[in-house]
Amino acid sequence: MSGALSGREADRTLAPEVRLGNEGQRGPGSEPPAQPRARRVLRRGPWENASAIVIGLGIVMQMQPFALELYTWSFAVILAGTLGFLVTSHFPD
Fold first, then answer.
1. pTM exceeding the 0.85 threshold for the entire prediction
2. CA 54, CA 46: separation in Å to the nearest integer?
3. Which of 90, 92, 86 has the alpha carbon at shortest distance from 51?
């Protein structure tokens, strides 16, 4: 034996959809595989938008002339939004 698999042995090592010649095809009524919950929740778009809103809120807090308490916390809010944007920019699309 030369070490190569015969046709039948090679067919047994392949996944069922490849063996049957149904690459990428699904039967009627079948649904695509469900994505893990974390994959659906940790998408880049909504989290980047939320981080941008937090940054904008911090800038508004810094520019307003009415409440010293808002001005005091504005830098922390801008920093939190920036760090959030930095982290969420690495999330999958």
1. no
2. 12
3. 86
